[in-house]
Write a structure and sequence with these properties.
The chain has helices at about 25, 30-55, 55-60, 90-115, 115-120, 120-135, 140-170, 175-200, 205-215, 220-230, 235-240, 245-255, 275-320, 325-355, 360-380, 390-405, 405-410, 420-475, 485, 490-495, 505-510; strands at about 15, 75, 85, 260. Helix 8 packs antiparallel against helix 14, helix 13 (about 275-320) runs antiparallel to helix 17 and helix 15 packs antiparallel against helix 17. A hairpin with an 8-residue loop joins strand 2 (about 75) and strand 3. It has one domain (about 20-480): Up-down Bundle (Growth Hormone, Chain: A). The strands form 2 sheets. The chain has a two-stranded parallel sheet with strand order 1-4. The chain is mostly helical. It has 21 helices and 4 strands.
């Protein structure tokens, strides 16, 4: 067994020869490069969460203030009768999430075809343009179109940021590092709620200005991070496995770890791409990661985006003397309470546990507790009221959702697919997840009207229970495995034939450590 050598511990950079060029990446300790990458990638997820979920407050605002004509009815669900009406506000709420179905699949494919560095940051430009244009929208159609553009940028960030962080990570802390990037979502959620409460208190009589500021504010952090994203080097795994550039890989390894690596293999050129070979080998993982994410996002986005509307309606029932703005302010205060007490802690508990407990275990437990909490709210409908019981049990769905499937469905796709198709596989999973989110967001209000809040909670309990089954059957455990082992990189290289890049000793060397 070779000693653990890192930039932090070695008095001078040692040399590593032969095909084990990624050994230092797998064995290094956490360092400044990891911290910088977390900030660059994580700020994108701060922005993504802000842009996706701030629309919940705006939808609640549009319920009593219309800046322009918004259709009261677009179409009706065939089984819903008069209650199953899909409104223009529902489409505004779901537009960005429909864009987020497209974004990960497009950018995921581009990231594997042209490289992470070439594509990284472009999705932020799309997001900035969409956010600014949304705040200047002059009609229902223009707002829907611009929010769709925001979603494409947001969705594109999922496979790019997750894969870049994963491919730069060490084995010991990879889940923690990728999970930390994702956990920045919690601060984005809180920022949207805080800015919303501040504007409602500061300019309560200017609803038109409030919603426009909320939408345009999402452009600020996205624009700030663009420059730094463009300066990140290409990941060493992409240069090695996809491009066959061993010298470039060695240079990046040294930059990240401080370890000097020399290679005994000559550059091999670009690896052949074979989508049929990828799907024939990895289709169970494509199905498992995509279906689990789809199921989780049905509950998480529906409840997250409609929490202000749900609590506002409960506030109206229990405090009818308040004005519309006061009801909305009360709803935002309760939303903030749930975010601080449950949502944000859930992300960081996941970060603390994911490399010790494992991805699969956290996902099983998360789905399981969500199913139980939703079932309690469904079978005991009196709890669906303002007060401590509702906040506690409803909050558990966010706490364990984030401890489990919200984090793990983001991490696992970065670990189970080979380098040549890693962003593609993650993009498929993320796009399917956002499809569940979009459907839920579009139909949530109508389904609550048809089934009642209690009935909707029982439906979400069933969805979470299916998530338990899918996780148990289709999701493998990947903790403490190198990416080359967890993704079966060496076996996939063999399917590509003799033209594949000649560096297949990496995975075995990491595992012998």
């Amino acid at each position: 067994m070779q000693p653990r050598v890192t930039a932090a511990t070695a008095p001078s950079p040692p040399a590593t020869a032969g095909p084990n060029v990624l050994d230092p990446m797998n064995r290094t300790r956490l360092n400044r490069f990891h911290a910088k990458t977390i900030l660059i990638a994580g700020m994108g997820f701060f922005t993504d969460a802000y842009d996706l979920f701030v629309i919940g407050l705006i939808a609640a605002l549009f319920a009593f203030y219309k800046p322009f004509a918004i259709p009261g009815s677009l179409f009706s669900l065939p089984f819903g009768g008069s209650a199953g009406v899909i409104s223009g506000i529902a489409l505004i709420s779901a537009a960005a999430i429909f864009g987020a179905v497209i974004g990960p699949m497009v950018f995921g494919s581009l990231g594997d075809r042209f490289g992470r560095k070439t594509v990284y940051g472009i999705e932020m430009i799309v997001l900035v343009i969409g956010a600014l244009a949304s705040g200047l929208a002059w009609s229902f159609a223009s707002l829907v179109a611009f929010r769709l553009l925001v979603g494409i940028g947001v969705g594109g960030d999922y496979p790019m940021s997750s894969t870049i962080m994963s491919e730069y990570s060490n084995v010991q802390d990879r889940g923690k590092l990728v999970g930390t990037v994702f956990a920045m979502q919690g601060f984005g959620l809180l920022a949207g709620v805080a800015l919303g409460v501040g504007l409602l208190v500061w300019i309560p009589n200017s609803p038109d200005l409030i919603w426009r500021i909320l939408l345009m504010a999402g452009a600020v952090p996205a624009a700030a991070v663009f420059f730094f994203r463009r300066r990140l080097p290409e990941t060493p795994r992409y240069t090695l496995f996809a491009e066959g550039q061993t010298a470039t890989t060695a240079k990046t390894v040294r930059e990240v770890t401080g370890v000097t690596v020399t290679s005994a293999t000559a550059p091999a050129g670009k690896s052949r791409r074979d989508g049929t070979a990828f799907l024939s080998k990895y289709w169970p993982l494509v199905l498992g990661t995509a279906f689990a994410w789809f199921l989780f996002d049905i509950s998480f986005y529906g409840t997250s985006i409609y929490t202000p509307t749900l609590i506002s309606s409960l506030s109206l029932a229990y405090a009818p003397h308040l004005t519309a703005i006061q009801h909305l302010t009360t709803a935002e205060e309760y939303t903030a309470l749930i975010t601080v007490l449950f949502t944000i802690p859930g992300y960081w508990i996941a970060v603390a546990l994911i490399d010790r407990v494992g991805r699969r275990t956290l996902q099983l437990v998360g789905f399981g507790v969500m199913a139980l909490a939703f079932a309690v709210l469904g079978f005991v409908p009196s709890l669906v009221a303002l007060g401590a019981p509702f906040v506690a049990i409803y909050g558990l769905t966010f706490l364990f959702g984030n401890i489990g499937p919200n984090t793990t469905t983001f991490v696992v796709p970065t670990e189970v697919f080979p380098t040549q198709y890693r962003t593609t596989g993650h993009g498929i999973a993320a796009g399917c997840g956002k499809m569940g989110a979009a459907i839920s967001t579009l139909l949530f209000a109508a389904l609550v009207a048809i089934w009642s809040p209690a009935g909707m909670m029982l439906f979400l309990a069933f969805i979470a229970l299916v998530g338990v089954i899918v996780t148990f059957v289709l999701i493998p455990e990947t903790k403490r495995l190198s990416l080359e082992v967890s993704s079966q990189q060496e076996e996939f290289q063999r399917t590509l034939g003799p033209s594949a890049v000649p560096h297949l000793g990496v995975a075995a060397a990491v595992e012998r450590e």
